[in-house]
Amino acid sequence: MTDDVAASSARLAPPPYVGPDADQTYAARSAGDGRPLHAAALKFFWGPMDCGKSTMALQMNYNHARQGRGGLVTTRIDRSLGPQVTTRIGLAHEAIEVTDDLDLRALVRGRRAEGLRVDYLICDEACFYTVQHVEQMAELVDDYDVDVFAFGLATDFRSGLFPAAQRLFELADEVTRIQVEVLCWCGREGLLNARVVDGVVVREGRQVVIGDTVVSADVRYQVLCRRHFRTGNLGPRG
Ligand SMILES: [Zn+2]
After folding, report:
1. Cα three-residue angle 139-120-80, rounded to 5 degrees
2. Residues marked as catalytic
3. What global pTM score does this model have?
4. Is 221 marked within a binding site?
């Protein structure tokens, strides 16, 4: 064996499995050729509003559940303002509301202690989670063998990254821009989420303001292309 081959097989050797089911060794979980049948991963799917993120999240939950896997759906500040994931095309699924002090690891441990399978997490609206939640997601993948599929916006109304989205870009095994096309009023691809207050694009303010909860002003969001985000042009019907 040449040094090169030895070096590359060393790199390919699976790390020891040290998750909570440590009696279930890597060998037992592999196809017999040393490769694990499944290695958990942290995946971040991002896109602007209305691009179908929540729909994709629920579809992914359905696909995995159908394979007999057990999972949890979490969300934060869903547009329904209740503990569920709702989609603009009318799907809904009950979900666990993620609060600042919710520990995702404790959530998984608790469910497993009740004898429930937790093979994956679907984390909707992940841009609104804390950076600590994203660290917990990475730990769930690495130490608990839980797949974490996070869905959310990348940027806020100022076109800057949400802190949790930034951490997801930094830590995720895979980052995917959702390809469902949302168009700006001009027909170009929608990229950025503008905050519109009393009919005008605003550039300053709190990072998270939900239209339904603000009574003092008419706040809404509109997906724009970069050009019209920059100029603040909401189009003929804006
Ligand atoms: Zn445009």
Report:
1. 105
2. 125
3. 0.78
4. yes
